[in-house]
Amino acid sequence: MKIIMKIVAILSLALFSQLAAAACSLDVEVGDALTFSQTQLAVEKSCGNVTLNLKHTGKLAASVMGHNWVLTKDSDANDVAAKGLAAGLGNNYVPAGDTRVIAATKIIGGGQATSISFSTDSLTAGGKYLYVCTFPGHSFVMRGTLIVEA
Ligand code: CU
User: Fold this and answer.
1) Nearest Cα to Cα of residue 150 among 20, 43, 73
2) What's the pTM?
């Protein structure tokens, strides 16, 4: 009986640490439709650094059905997406040097994957953040909320 209790304790500890670690490393998938696999993500301010892995499981090329993952404050998302449109594919549809962009991946097409790492220093626990895809026409549909926990 003691051994069983021990195993249960070890298992729940392993599960807990896996959940905690997951909050500092995020996996998001995109495909040949205008959707992110998750519309809500959570990180912990205490992560220090967050890794975002973006994978395109579709078949269409980046110029046709490209996607990126761009993080801004809730209130900045629409304007950043509009400015990104003007920046063009050569700039991954992200306005160069725009300090409102907290993190951004490059645009990827079918079969491709990319990763970025960003600091949680500029994130406020309890703050509202949005991630969008800034490929032309995608940002109003392809968006999700990033929750920052303490
Ligand atoms: Cu997209």
Assistant:
1) 43
2) 0.85
Dist. CA 27 → ligand 1 center (Å) = 16
> What are the residue boundaries of the structural domains of the chain, listed by start?
25-149
CATH of 25-149, one of 2.60.40.420, 3.20.20.140, 3.50.50.100, 1.10.510.10: 2.60.40.420
- CA-to-CA distance for 75 and 7, rounded, in angstroms? 48
Report CA dihedral (123, 124, 127, 131) to the nearest 10 degrees.
Answer: 10
CA of 13 to the centre of ligand 1 (A): 38
How do residues 62-115 score in pLDDT, each as one tens digit?
999 999 999 999 999 999 999 999 999 999 999 999 999 999 999 999 999 999
| Whole-number Å distance between alpha carbons of 123 and 78 | 19
